[in-house]
Structures are given as structure tokens and as C-alpha cells.
Design goal:
By secondary structure, the protein is α/β, with parallel strands linked by helices. The strands form 4 sheets. Strands 2-1-3-4-5-6 form a 6-stranded parallel sheet, sandwiched between helices. A hairpin with a 4-residue loop joins strand 15 and strand 16. It is globular and about 60 Å long.
């Protein structure tokens, strides 16, 4: 292998995909490969794809077409495609994109250095194995800022929501052992990570397959013994948010009072058709309990609009529910028909324009709620981790514990003393501009 061979990795999609990319980066580094910051500076580019919904697939295909153009121009030599889209559409990739030199399934990441070596030597590699043997273990090269990292606790999903292809792509839910997770966490601590974010397709299911119980509370207590400042929870399913979990979040000071609960809808009939548990009454009860037991908690959720059969009345009920629950953070997706999922075969599909319009309505309502909430926070002080400086507007930016990285936006602020990236400082909120909190550093 030439020492000059440079690899660029373009990782798309969710944080779970990102941790897979970090595992591959480590293996490539151990094999002696160098890294390029962007495809145009590389010899070989790995496109690590997401295949969850139509938008994600379109983004991956756009990237792939761009890489093929670079290859045809002679800027890059080889292209390797990994990730959920290659796993899901292995035959289509090989047939429709002959310019691609490697197509790799999720179980083969452990051998990525050997695969790239073969590609480098002119061999076309198409390799897939048992997706449920996908390894989540090994060293990582973090692609996040050095002060925060994602900590994956499981892969796969057993919820089998009728709209979702993840079980087809990633297989059954599989927890990592607590020992391996804690070893990973200790290494993150030793490397200077201050905020660790727990992720899985369903974080709250952690341990059920390995230990026969919901073991997330136990894992959280053990993580709190390590030298993290913030521990954050994403992807928590409502039916598995137990009293024990609520108590741990409430009583462990290192666990930020923030929880991401993807609800998707409130109407009982729609939820049943989605193969999800609960109804509006149970969801209201959970939200009320979380706010009662954990004062000041930040609640994030996601909704799907235009699910097959969703009537105007059911959508209006969802809008009223969102208004009344006043979620602090909300993501909204127009329903996406995914091949080989039960919902794609439902006869009462909602028109795509209607799906998008309903999504826009919920997003506009949320923007108004956020603006009102932010204005009510003027005069308050919060601890913020500094993420950088925007020289065009002359403000530093960062996040409080109420903001998850990459999905919740930023707080902008002025500071007399120049802070460093990763510093934790106190910010007093002074105004709101374009739904952004603006503040100033205080002692």
C-alpha cells in the first residue's frame, strides 16, 4: 500500500451511523491509511449512507453522483459505498452504478481496511454478510468535537413500526454488554469528552435481550461514576420510560434534564396502525409525569404527518396535542412510503402535498411556541459549552444542557474574555433574534 493513499469518509444520516463511521476510521488509521478532509482531496472516498426515508436516500444518491463525476474527471480514483442504503439496495447499487468499486454491507465494517486494500489494487468488491453480526466494538476516531461523543448501547430494532425499514436493514435489537459500554465510556473520559450522548434505535430497550430486564437505569448509574459533566439520552420510547428511569434522571446530577421521546402521533387509531403502543391519554399522562417529577425538563419529540388513513380530524387532534403539550423541541416528518413495509401497502395513502402541508403547519406552530418560550427566558442565566465563533456576525455560539448537539440549534453570545472551544461558561439571555437566544457571558 502506498503511504500516499488518502481516504475521505462522507458519513450521512444519524448519530448511530456516525459511530459506525468512527469505527471504520479507526481501522483504516491502524492499517496506515491517511485521511483527506474532503473527497476532492482523496484517492479513495467512502460514502457511508443512510437509507431510512426518501430524503435520506436522495441525499445519498446526490452524493454518489457527485463522487462519480469526480472519478470520471480523474480527481478521485475509487469509490466505496457503505451504510444502510448499500445494505438495503445491494443488487440495485451493483447494477445501476458500475462506477462504484466497493459495495459493503453493515456486517463487514470490521474488515474495511482489507476491503479498501483490495479496491486500491484494482479489485471490485461486493461483500455482504449476516447483518446481525455487525460489530459495535472496537476503537473509534471521533468525528465530533473533542468535548462530546455518542455512546452506542445497541443496534437493530424489534419495535416493527409499520412505516419503518430499520428492522430489515439493521436486524433484531442487540444490546452491547454493559462491560463493553463502560470500557468505551472510560476511554472517552480519558480522551477529554465531557458530554456523552446515549444512542440506539430504542435506547430504553437496552438490556432486555441480554439481561432479561430494562437495564438502562443501571447503566446510567454506572456511567455517572465516571468523570463526565453531561450525560444525555436520545431515542427513548414512551412505553419503556419507567418510574425507575425517571428517578435516575431526576436524582443523578450528571444526567441532563433532557429526554428525546419520539411519539410520532397522538391519535390512538393512527398509533395502532403504526404498530405503536399507547394513545393520547397515556401520552399526556407520561408528559405530565415527566414534568412533575423532573422540574424544568426539556422534552424533544418527533411527529409523522400524513400517515396512511390520517383524516383531517386526526391531524387537527395532533396539532392541538402539540400545542397543549408545548414540546421544547420537535422534529416533524411527512410520511415516506418505504418499500417492503406494511404501511406502504395500506390502501388509504394520503396525497404527498397534503402530507407536506400538514408538516409545515406543525413546524410553523412549533416556531411560534419556541419564540414565546425563548422570550420568557430573557434575564435567565444558563451554563453553556462553547462550540465556536462566527466571525461574520461577531458572536460566539454554544449549547446549554437543554440543547442536544446537531439537532437543537445554538445559543449566540458576546464575551469580553475570549473563551476556548469546549469551555463551560455562564450566559445571561438578553434577547431573541430569528428564534435564536442571544446572550452575554457573565461571571
Amino acid at each position: 500500500m502506498s503511504d500516499k493513499t488518502k481516504i475521505a469518509v462522507v458519513s450521512l444520516g444519524c448519530a448511530k451511523n456516525q459511530t459506525d463511521a468512527e469505527l471504520m476510521l479507526y481501522r483504516l488509521n491502524e492499517a496506515g491509511y491517511a485521511f483527506a478532509e474532503e473527497p476532492g482531496l482523496s484517492d479513495i472516498t467512502i460514502l457511508h449512507t443512510c437509507g431510512f426515508i426518501t430524503e435520506a436516500k436522495q441525499e445519498a444518491i446526490e452524493w454518489l453522483n457527485e463522487l462519480i463525476t469526480l472519478k470520471n474527471e480523474g480527481t478521485i480514483k475509487k469509490i466505496c459505498v457503505t451504510g444502510c442504503l448499500s445494505e438495503r439496495y445491494r443488487e440495485e447499487f451493483e447494477k445501476e452504478y458500475p462506477e462504484v468499486d466497493g459495495i459493503v454491507g453493515i456486517s463487514e465494517y470490521k474488515d474495511i481496511a482489507e476491503i479498501i486494500k483490495k479496491i486500491e489494487n484494482g479489485e471490485k468488491v461486493v461483500v455482504f454478510g449476516d447483518k446481525e453480526k455487525h460489530s459495535m466494538e472496537g476503537g473509534r476516531i471521533l468525528s465530533t468535537a473533542p468535548y462530546y461523543a455518542y455512546l452506542r448501547v445497541a443496534d437493530g430494532c424489534d419495535n416493527c413500526c409499520t412505516y419503518c425499514a430499520i428492522p430489515q436493514i439493521r436486524g433484531h435489537f442487540r444490546s452491547r454488554t454493559m462491560e463493553n459500554i463502560l470500557n468505551d465510556a472510560r476511554e472517552l473520559c480519558e480522551s477529554g469528552v465531557k458530554e456523552v450522548i446515549l444512542i440506539a434505535q430504542d435506547t430504553t430497550r437496552y438490556g432486555l435481550d441480554l439481561y432479561g430486564r430494562l437495564a438502562l437505569p443501571e447503566l446510567l448509574n454506572k456511567l455517572c461514576e465516571l468523570d463526565f459533566k453531561w450525560i444525555r439520552l436520545l431515542y427513548c420510547y414512551p412505553e419503556r420510560i419507567t418510574d425507575e428511569l425517571i428517578s435516575v434522571i431526576k436524582n443523578q446530577p450528571k444526567i441532563v434534564k433532557y429526554i428525546d421521546v419520539p411519539i410520532q402521533h397522538c391519535d390512538g387509531e393512527i398509533l395502532k396502525r403504526m404498530n405503536r403502543k399507547g394513545d393520547e391519554s397515556s401520552l399526556r399522562g407520561l408528559i405530565e409525569k415527566l414534568r412533575r417529577e423532573i422540574p424544568g425538563i426539556t422534552l424533544r419529540t418527533t411527529f409523522i404527518t400524513g400517515f396512511p388513513g390520517e383524516t383531517e380530524e386526526q391531524f387537527n387532534r395532533l396539532g392541538e396535542f402539540a400545542q397543549e403539550m408545548k414540546f421544547d423541541r420537535m422534529g416533524c416528518f411527512a410520511y415516506s412510503e418505504e418499500e417492503n413495509t406494511p404501511a406502504a401497502k395500506f390502501p388509504d395513502q394520503v396525497d404527498e402535498d397534503v402530507r407536506e402541508h400538514r408538516k409545515e403547519i406543525l413546524e410553523e406552530q412549533q416556531d411560534t411556541r419556541v419564540e414565546e418560550a425563548y422570550k420568557a427566558m430573557i434575564g435567565e442565566v444558563a451554563e453553556v459549552v462553547v462550540e465556536g465563533y462566527d466571525r461574520f456576525i461577531g458572536y460566539y455560539f454554544g449549547r446549554s444542557a437543554a440543547f442536544a448537539p446537531e439537532i437543537d440549534g445554538m445559543i449566540y453570545f458576546k464575551a469580553d474574555k475570549r473563551p476556548s472551544e469546549g469551555d463551560f461558561i455562564n450566559i445571561k439571555f438578553v434577547r431573541v433574534v430569528n428564534n435564536n437566544l442571544i446572550g452575554e457571558a457573565v461571571e
